[in-house]
Write a structure and sequence with these properties.
The chain is of the alpha+beta class and 629 residues long. The chain folds into four domains: 90 residues, no CATH class; 177 residues, Glycosyltransferase; 182 residues, Glycosyltransferase, CATH 1.50.10; 100 residues, Sandwich (Immunoglobulin-like). Helices cover 38% and strands 12% of the residues. Strands 11, 12, 14, 15 and 16 form a five-stranded antiparallel β-sheet that branches. A three-stranded antiparallel β-sheet has the order 3-4-5. Strands 13-10-17 form a three-stranded mixed β-sheet, with no helix packed on it. This is Glucoamylase. Keywords: Carbohydrate metabolism, Glycoprotein, Glycosidase, Hydrolase, Polysaccharide degradation, Signal. Belongs to the glycosyl hydrolase 15 family. It is an enzyme of class 3 (hydrolase).
């Protein structure tokens, strides 16, 4: 086997012209771009920093920033999804990579939570007209079916315990390192994302696909929720072990809409009916009279003010719901009081928030005691503060009035100091004043993101509490997803109702119940996998590209037995060579590419051998996209 120098992960950056062309291409096709355009956009690295945009965005109005950032966010998400995303090298089809960052911190994994939240965004965009996203959604569906069967440190599918595993390697194998496990929000969020797609399929008379491909995954997740909801969990931030408001809230939603879907497709979800009322009953325990405690049944030094709770209201937002406190809907008095308590907790701890008065938007972190990576504001948490308010505005528009109670009065007082407790109808001037004030407040949080976003629009995880510069994991998928949902709600684009109003009555007695679940593999796992190896490399006439590797299927490093790649799909814009090779499940493969000239001269690509483990899956196929080194 040839000896190769050390691995280099440096990728060539596009020219300014290429970046501008990519941005323009996306804007021109943003309503319904074609598959070819979407594929091209997904491959252009959005990593350089251009001073031109820094100058423009610093002086651009908010609307221009939102338009620009929306043109960046969706392509950036696609770049973090396997197999073809340029930042997702080695990721199986449909696997959502949290971030391409591999050191300090290493986020090059797939989290069940983050992936589900991202998929929900893609489903909403697909339903709105982005038809090119359907293959990505279907790849996610197949990937999750496979992941449900992967034995891991949390357990396996026999008793459902393995569904609580928070993250996996991007090749769909188990992550076996030390971690905060279990995390019980993942199955609930996966239910919500897949039901959104299932409802669309049903609307298109494709119920058979829902029954055969989606319900088997959902049945496992719903059984898991019913069986384990009243057991402790690690929280949204993977730090606190106890009872989590966020987890409990999304579990309740999942069971409610799970039952609705089960009825539509003539299936049964016994745990949905039996456990959802008790979960809702338990949810009330998190309200402490002033705000929502993010975690209970824990022993730590935190005050309990945490954006975990804002995100819970955002992810359980029901456009058709009333402003009731039972489910902590965004327009409910308790949700608004909590919004004030949480956001105000950051006013005195960040230098960039100095002198910002109450009622004016500011940079928002996870929780005030946070020290992770310096304990800075996050883009997604600041966006959550905006999204909750946009959700509330939508609900007010449907209801036609705003009711201010003693609980919510402090929130409204910060915005309109003369306001008093009472109900204000849409025909009154005070109603219009309140609506305007809330919208301006929400826009202020978007403006904070605008102020501290880099010129390229590429969003990291955090930004500095002292000067606002981007920090921690680069190109965080969740940051982009949060921007897209917040700005969609700003425009009044909302998802369908999940049935909150149909079953929000509290039982007379709260009980710590459970329903033993039954579990089954959602699909037959293939014993072999057709792996399509794609190598992006510019060649000249007469050159050919080959793949050679450590296993017999790749010639065992014998050049004479190497596999020739095809240039059938090679274009100037996407110079790709490919070959499909069937390999056994879970096989570990080392491989490299080489060029061969007309005269037989061989040129191997540089650096260490590439390594790939053939993933488990239902489809029996996967793909690898590599770039010539």
């Amino acid at each position: 086997m040839p000896s190769f120098p050390a691995l280099s992960r440096n990728l060539p950056l596009p020219s300014l012209d290429a970046f501008l062309q990519t941005r323009a291409l996306f804007i021109l096709t943003s309503s319904a771009f074609g598959i070819a355009a979407a594929s091209y956009i997904a491959q252009v690295p959005l990593t350089p920093t251009y001073e031109l945009f820094s100058h423009q965005l610093t002086h651009a109005p908010l609307e221009d920033f939102i338009k620009f950032e929306n043109s960046v966010a969706l392509p950036a998400i696609l770049q973090n999804i396997g197999p073809d995303g340029i930042n997702a090298g080695g990721a199986a089809p449909g696997i959502v990579v949290a971030s391409p960052s591999k050191t300090d911190p290493n986020y090059f994994y797939t989290w069940t939570r983050d992936s589900a939240l991202t998929l929900k965004v893609l489903v909403e965009a697909f339903i709105a007209g982005e038809i090119a996203l359907q293959p990505t959604i279907e790849n996610y569906l197949a990937a999750q079916a496979g992941l449900e069967t992967v034995s891991n440190p949390s357990g396996d599918l026999t008793n459902g315990a393995g569904l609580g595993e928070p993250k996996f390697n991007v090749d769909q194998t188990a992550f076996i390192g030390t971690w905060g496990r279990p995390q019980r929000d993942g199955p609930a969020l996966r239910v919500t994302s897949l039901i959104a797609y299932a409802n669309w399929l049903i609307s298109k008379d494709q119920i058979t696909i829902v029954v055969s491909d989606i319900w088997p995954i959902l049945a496992n997740d719903l059984a898991y929720i019913g069986q384990y909801w009243n057991q402790t969990t690690f929280d949204l931030w993977e730090e606190v072990h106890g009872s989590s408001f966020f987890t409990t809230a999304v579990q309740y939603r999942a069971l409610v809409e799970g039952e609705i879907l089960a009825v539509r497709i003539k299936k049964s979800c016994r745990s949905c009916l039996s456990q959802s009322p008790q979960i809702l009953c338990f949810l009330q325990r998190f309200w402490n009279g002033k705000f929502i405690s993010a975690n209970i049944n824990v022993n730590n030094d935190r005050a309990g003010k945490d954006v975990n709770t804002l995100l819970a209201s955002v992810y359980t937002f029901d456009p058709s719901a009333h402003c009731d406190d039972t489910t902590f809907q965004p327009c409910s008095p308790k949700a608004l009081a909590n919004h004030k308590a949480v956001t105000d907790s950051f006013r005195s701890i960040y230098a960039i928030n100095t002198a910002i008065p109450r009622g004016v938007a500011l940079a928002v972190g996870r929780y005030p005691e946070d020290t992770y990576q310096g304990g800075n504001p996050w883009y997604l948490t600041t966006l959550a503060a905006a999204e909750l308010l946009y959700d509330a505005l939508y609900q007010y528009s449907i209801l036609g009035h705003i009711t201010i109670t003693p609980t919510s009065h402090p929130f409204f007082f910060d915005l309109v100091p003369s306001i008093t407790v009472g109900t204000y109808t849409s025909s009154s001037p005070i109603y219009r004043t309140l609506i305007s004030a809330i919208r301006n407040y929400a826009d202020g949080f978007i403006s904070v993101v605008h102020k501290y976003a880099p010129a390229t629009g590429l969003l990291a995880e955090q930004f500095s509490r002292t000067d606002g510069s981007p920090l921690s994991a680069a190109n965080l998928t969740w940051s982009y997803a949060a921007f897209l949902t917040a700005t969609a709600r700003r425009k009044g684009q909302v998802p369908g109702s999940w049935g909150s109003n149909t079953s929000d009555a509290l039982p007379s007695t709260c009980k710590a119940t459970s329903a033993k679940g039954t579990y089954a593999p959602p699909c037959a796992i293939a014993t072999s996998v057709a792996v399509t190896f794609r190598e992006v490399v510019t060649t000249t006439y007469g050159e050919n590209v080959y793949i050679s590797g450590s296993v017999s299927e790749l010639g065992r490093w014998d050049i004479e037995l190497a596999i020739a790649l095809s240039a059938e799909f090679y274009t100037a814009e996407d110079p790709v060579w490919d070959a499909t090779i069937t390999l056994p499940l879970n096989m570990l493969v080392e491989y490299k590419y080489f060029k061969m000239e007309q005269d037989g001269k061989v040129m191997w690509e540089r650096d260490l051998n590439r390594v790939f483990t053939v993933p488990a899956g239902c489809t029996g196929k996967t793909a690898k996209r590599d770039f010539w080194r």
